[in-house]
Each structure stands twice: as structure tokens, then as C-alpha cells.
Design goal:
It comes from Amycolatopsis camponoti. The longest helix has 20 residues, at 123-142. This protein has a single domain, classed as TIM Barrel, CATH 3.20.20. It has 13 helices and 13 strands. The protein starts with a strand and ends in a 7-residue tail after the last helix. The radius of gyration is 20 Å and the shape is globular. The chain is of the alpha/beta class. An 8-stranded parallel beta barrel has the order 1-2-3-4-7-8-9-13, surrounded by 8 helices. The chain has a two-stranded antiparallel sheet with strand order 5-6.
Length: 351
Amino acid sequence: MTLEFIGYAAGRQASEIIAPEGPIIQPGYLREVARTHEGAGFDRVLIAQSASSPDGFVLADQVLAATERLGVLLAHRPGFVAPTQLARKFATLDAFHPGRIALHVITGGDDADQARDGDFTDKPTRYRRTDDFLSVVRRTWDSAEPFDHDGEFYRVRGAISDIRPAGRIPVYFGGASADAIRVGAKHADVYAFWGEPLAGIAERIEQVRAAAGRDVAFSVSLRPIPAATEAEAWERARDILRLTQDRAGEFKGRRDSSEAVGSQRLLEAAATGDVVDERLWTAVAKTTGAAGNSTALVGSYEQVADSLLDYVRLGVGTLLIRGFSPLADARDYGTLVRLVREKADAVTVGA
């Protein structure tokens, strides 16, 4: 079967265990991490967004220009850019780099971070706005004739774009709440989950499928820690946890994850034990308050590959994997990507 692998790119290197140093934009690093992912066999890299992040469109263009094949999954929070403008921005990137740009919709689960950009709406309102936003975006991409739109949040008259994508720009969607499932099931080509235990992912896949009533693809985000042997992998995992604990206060103070349903679900899994499903490691999620993608798979390359394929068997077609040492891990993941692809042909996907 065909699998998609997505990594992670930013303007400088930082993680739970690596404190950022130097300018927030380091062009040489961005080009190197992009080319490393391409060389390791990744299909795309995620460029994240927050209220303090550099402009993702510029970063995406730099990644695409530095590589030949690698795509970009560009995160965007609806509510700050008009949907017609957003549609044209993505279509313009697609014109320069056909088929290599995708939209990752992040409605926003952290009220404090939304407020930094002047947004004081509550989560249910944000999801209604996202619904309206995506309706206009897709229509702008698809319509060859002027159109009108009258929604709760957006009204346009005679909207038309001189630039439209030649093919379909995929829409990825993240969120774990009931509102998220309602809106994401309506609009998403790929619905993205954090790395929950297998039973949780199976439950969520069924929820989205039932709400969508159509074909939707699924993504799971995990933090693999592979090594030549299981013992070596666990030794590295313990080092990662120690380093993360040293900086735990920074992560818990930077983002409020208390109202994010996805974070709550990771913490519920962590409460059942440090290891779930044989090798899903939750200790970093517990340490950081699950303020982001923070569950890991620990083991030998073969063991981690097999655990990733357990998600594939549930119906997951996209694996978003990023490391705790972003550049070195992206390079090292080439072995993991190859192994999973080789084994995937033997996988029977659940209905």
C-alpha cells in the first residue's frame, strides 16, 4: 500500500531537549533539514504555526525551492487572513511548485495564544468560523466563475481568483473535540490525530468516518526513538526524558493545553502507564503536560516499524514522525521509512 511520511521543518533547531540558539531564522539550517528529509524518503515536512512564529508561507517557499520533490504541509489558523486571500496564497505556491503544497488547518485550542494575535473568540465560535472559512477557500480554488457567499463570518460578492490550483490542494485537519470532528469530517481530505494508543485511534477513526459519510484519510503523529537494539533505544529514551524534565517548566508555561481535548486524551493515556500498547511511551507527554505531539515509540528499528504499521492496519495512511533531535533524527529516520515501506505491502488495512 502507499504510505505518506511527513517530517518537521523550522527556521532553527529546537525541541524538548534542545534549547534554541541564535537567530530564529537560520537559512542554512532550514535548507539542510529540508534536504535531509528529502534524502531520507519523506514526502512532506510540516511547517507549524503559532502566534509568535515566523511567516510560514516564506518558510514553505524556501523549503520548496531548496528541494526537488519534497512537499510542505503548511499549518494555518483561520481567522486572521481572508479566506479568498488564503486560497490565492496557496494557489500561488502551487503554481511555482505543482502538487507540493498542502494546507493543515489548526483552529486553535489555546485561548492565550489566540489572544496574542487579537482573537478572543471561544473554541466553539472558532470552529464555526473555520467551517465558514474552508467553504470559501475551497470554492475560491474550484470556481472558474465569480461567486457570492453569505456565511456567519464571511461574506463575499463576485469573488474570483485569477490563479487556481491545477489539481486539488489537500486539506489536513487537526482537532479532537466534538466540534473539531463535525467540521473536520466535512472538509478534511486527511484527518490528523496525535499519537494515542491504538484503541483510541480506532475509536476516533470511527467517529470521523461516521460524521463524514465519505472517504477520509487519516494521519497519526508520533515521536519514534529507534536504535539498533531495544536496549539502546530505551537508554536514549531515558536520556530524552531526563533532558525534558530539566526544561519542563518552559513547556508547561509556554502553552495552556488544559482545554485542548487532544492533550487531555494523551494525558489520560499517560495516566494508565508510561508504556502502552507494548512500546507507546507516554512519559514525555506527562512531563510536558501534553502540550503538543509528545508520545513516542521506543524500540529497535524493526520493532518501531512494526508498531507504526499497527496504526496503518487501523486505516492510517499518513505517518507524521519527528524526532527529539530534529536534524539528526530526520537523517536517521531514513532507515525507518524504508523498513515501513517495505513491510507495508503485507499489511491488511481494517475496514
